[in-house]
Design a protein that fits this description.
The chain is an all-alpha fold. The chain has one domain. The chain is 70% helix and 0% strand. α4 packs parallel to α6 and α5 runs antiparallel to α6. The longest helix is centred in the N-terminal third of the chain and has 40 residues.
């Protein structure tokens, strides 16, 4: 007769892992200093506050940029772009930089708009110059800078240095004859939804299509804005700014610190002048100027968004050249400014 006595059931692998994790958690928590979880909760609250501040500040301008992108897609054709923007490198770079005075977009909204302009045949040099200049030269930023610093040297030098950097970077990219070596393949693929219109479409139909493009662009670029805002919030929360400020007293180190803060803080260019004004009593004119020039061109969230438009090597140039030129400008002003 077969023995029906069952042997003791062994614990499953999942149960063993769960028990081990519980025991390990209890051991680790007993080794942590008192008040650790309260401190961690406070840090998480700061992280959430900073993240929401960056995100809420940037979303309206991302929406404005994607709306401009939709209008460009529907109402602008390649022939018009060819008539308005020269394909000669210097003229294209200068023209692209001055285009930034027309569109009221910050560093978030300018990325989807530039991508759409590339699709419409905008030359590389003009597009890169526009990408870097628009967040500084647009009328909203000009007015906010004037409100913070007055209609004086800081405003003029911010616009002038930014314009020079944008044109120089545009000229660097003008040597590349094949746009496919700079732009990601998605720009020339069928990634975009079909928003084609008949020639005799009504104005209301065109606006409806423009809003469809706006929605597509907003939700696509918005996720990268969220990622960038989270990274910026994490750095602001867990990297003490006091450690940066403590080494920012010299004519060179002060510029490096302010450039680091420009990336770290990731402040929208429409309000960064008021933040920079608070540093003016502690930092030199040149270092604050470098913050105002470099910050709108390159920060954490804009780098994330650049990577969706340009190849990695191109993004490295877009980041490195403005950084070095902003550093040089800040150091020169620190030594030359009385």
């Amino acid at each position: 007769m077969q023995n029906t006595t069952s042997s003791p059931r062994l614990l499953s692998r999942t149960s063993i892992i769960t028990i081990s994790l519980v025991v390990l958690s209890l051991v680790v928590s007993s080794m942590l200093p008192a008040g650790f979880f309260a401190l961690l909760w406070d840090r998480l609250n700061v992280f959430a506050t900073v993240f929401l501040g960056i995100f809420v500040e940037a979303v309206p301008y991302l929406l404005l940029g994607t709306l401009a992108s939709g209008l460009v897609e529907v109402f602008l054709d390649r022939d018009q772009m060819s008539r308005w923007i020269s394909h000669r490198p210097v003229a294209a770079a200068v023209g692209g930089a001055f285009m930034g005075m027309i569109f009221p977009v910050c560093e978030c909204g300018v990325v989807p708009l530039t991508r759409r302009l590339f699709n419409k045949g905008l030359p590389l040099s003009a597009g890169i110059a526009f990408l870097l200049a628009a967040p500084v030269l647009n009328p909203i930023v000009v007015l906010s800078t004037a409100s913070a610093f007055g209609w004086g040297q800081m405003l003029l030098w911010r616009m002038g240095v930014s314009l020079i950097i944008a044109v120089v970077v545009g000229l660097v990219f003008s040597v590349e004859q094949n746009a496919a070596n700079v732009l990601r393949p998605v720009l020339t693929s069928s990634h975009d939804h079909d928003h084609s219109l008949e020639a005799n479409a009504s104005f209301s139909e065109k606006m409806r299509r423009a809003l469809l493009v706006t929605a597509d662009e907003f939700f696509e670029m918005g996720r990268y804005l969220i990622i960038g805002a989270m990274l910026a919030a994490a750095l602001q929360t867990f990297v003490p700014q006091s450690s940066l400020l403590a080494i920012g007293s010299g004519p060179v180190t002060s510029v490096l610190v302010m450039l680091a803060l420009a990336i770290l803080l990731s402040i929208c260019s429409t309000v960064d002048a008021f933040v920079a004004l608070g540093f003016l009593g502690t930092f030199s004119f040149g270092s604050v100027l470098s913050f105002l020039v470099f910050g709108p061109m390159v920060d954490i969230k804009s780098i994330i968004m650049y990577l969706q438009v340009f190849r990695r090597r191109s993004v490295a140039y877009i980041v490195a050249i403005p950084f070095l030129m902003s550093l040089l400008a800040g150091i020169l002003f620190n030594y030359l400014q009385p």
